[in-house]
């Protein structure tokens, strides 16, 4: 029997803003646009929802519903992407089997890791919730069950800051009283059709089936029946692990200073490699990217002698690529680095001894930084970035991190 968590960050965009600006807590808050602007609400916080504001409602309507002290903000996908990344990275401390389904949602198969937590999923989930709150200032809701759909439904019944555990074998009982629209995929189109058949709760699905009355046929009927009886055929999609990992950043102001470009690229390489090591992966191909002030973008890639997750090794490739890409004096607005052709760590035959040493060192450094903050161990090359960027325990706060390349 599997134990699956579905983790969902509560009111994600609004919560990030409240974490960054604690003075917003307690006030109705809408992310999506400034007051008086056109467009729709991307994310209201719970205080705004209490006034009837919903996601995708026109901002103008939200303004009419909310009191004058309500706050409207356009929001920043850059910052949300960064927070999402931080939370998702934290999940890997609990299990390697993660399927991220959206910016603020992930399934975790914790079956093989529960023994670290005395076989108690509740202790594990509480520790995880606590860590995310402490490190990111975000509350999350967690549903725990023996399958994905049931975990997802469980996460939805108690929000915010929820924790709902469906005991193994208790799936049917848990689901029975819930309205059919609690089932993922049953939306405003399907719900009235089911109501017309007299199906209002999950229990009705099984009841009608056992009475030989029509449930919708085909795929929908099979799906509803499987969900209602606590069987769910959705398997975890670990395969979605990236084929590459990249980090780039647009500068606050353009720069032609080669040593600044190198420092920034070193920092970005460190970030890529940390993620690689966290996932127990190595990369065979390294790419560097440069966007000049006139928006011309160039990139070049190189194959490593042996797969690696060592930033010094990977950066030496990045530096060589940068020399080829960047004519001295030309101003640059963005640099990026990417590692690809990923494979599980430790499979490489070449230079096993040297590789192992570097690997141990890096893992020890990662652990130190995790405990005492990024700056507890820092190489000279990234030190200069302190003049350009502010930092926190996780590292520098780049002007603009972007995660694709
Ligand atoms: Mg959410």
Written overview of the protein:
This protein has 405 residues and is an alpha+beta fold. It folds into four domains: 4-12 and 78-165, Alpha-Beta Plaits; 13-77, MutS, DNA mismatch repair protein, domain I, CATH 3.40.1170.60; 176-228, DNA polymerase, domain 1 (Orthogonal Bundle); 242-402, DNA polymerase, Y-family, little finger domain (Dna Ligase, domain 1). The chain is 38% helix and 22% strand. The protein has 14 helices and 15 strands. The strands form four sheets. The protein has a five-stranded mixed beta sheet. Strands 11-10-12-9-15 form a five-stranded antiparallel beta sheet. α4 (77-91) runs antiparallel to α5 (121-136) and α11 runs antiparallel to α12 (311-325). The protein is globular. The mean pLDDT is 88.
| Tally of strands | 15
Please state the second-level CATH architecture of the largest domain. 2-Layer Sandwich
- List segments where confidence is low: pLDDT < 50 over at least 5 consecutive residues: none
Helix content: 25-40%
Radius of gyration: 24 Å
Q: Label the overall shape.
A: globular
Number of domains: 4
Q: Within the largest sheet, what's the order of strands? A: 5-6-1-7-8
Could you tell me the CATH topology label of the largest domain: Dna Ligase, domain 1
Percentage of residues in DSSP E strands = 15-25%
**Mean pLDDT, all residues:** 88
Number of helices: 14
Q: Say which CATH homologous superfamily of the largest domain is assigned.
A: DNA polymerase, Y-family, little finger domain
Structural class: alpha+beta
The secondary-structure element order is EHEEHHEHEEHEHEHHHHEHEEHEHHEEE
